[in-house]
Amino acid sequence: MTMTTATDAGAPGGYSRALGLHICDRTAAGAAPRSLRQSPLNVRQSDLRAWLDGDPEFAALFGLACAAGVAPQRYSLSRAAEFCRRVADGAMVSEACGQAGMPSLATVQWWTQRRPEFAAMLASALDAQSRRLADEVTAIADAASPETLQISRMRIAARQWLAARLARQTPEVPGRTAPAETDGWPAGLVVEAAEF
After folding, report:
1. Residue 176: which of 123, 108, 114, 117 has the closest Cα?
2. What residue ranges in the chain does DSSP mark as E strands?
3. Low-confidence residues of the chain, pLDDT below 50?
4. H/E element holding 167?
5. Angle 40-32-97 (CA atoms, 0-180°, nearest 5)?
6. How far apart are CA 39 and CA 31, in angstroms?
């Protein structure tokens, strides 16, 4: 495999999308941006700054890679599956990120961008969490009484808000249809609390 360098990338200023992705992958793995000059990539800091100013997509990806590189976590399918299992079991993504051996939030975002299989697993885990919230709402509504109506409404509203937020956080996965934008539950699910 031939390594693309800044001098032979062929694009104005030596930049190419492949080179940008390689720079981001190295950065996410913990390499300092200034080490790019001494690497086989031979990227000068002035070139890197010009590329960041000239390509918003590269700038966004590089920023995410820098955040992930602060506490780099090597990707493995078993670690990714364990993370998604914890999310599916009810842990919020940020909560799962704080657990021992799990990736940081920035690393999760990086993996979502660069690993399609992880994006698909995370989307399924968030979907499972939304279904769990729907089951909780049913249980809360079934257990409501005139004395607990107000607190039940509050609990239902909190879960409704969380389910809508999870739907917006679910990564886009090729071949998977995105849920419709709603202010509450995902499309097709209506929850009402009636007076007794």
Report:
1. 123
2. none
3. 1-12, 182, 196
4. helix 149-169
5. 125
6. 10
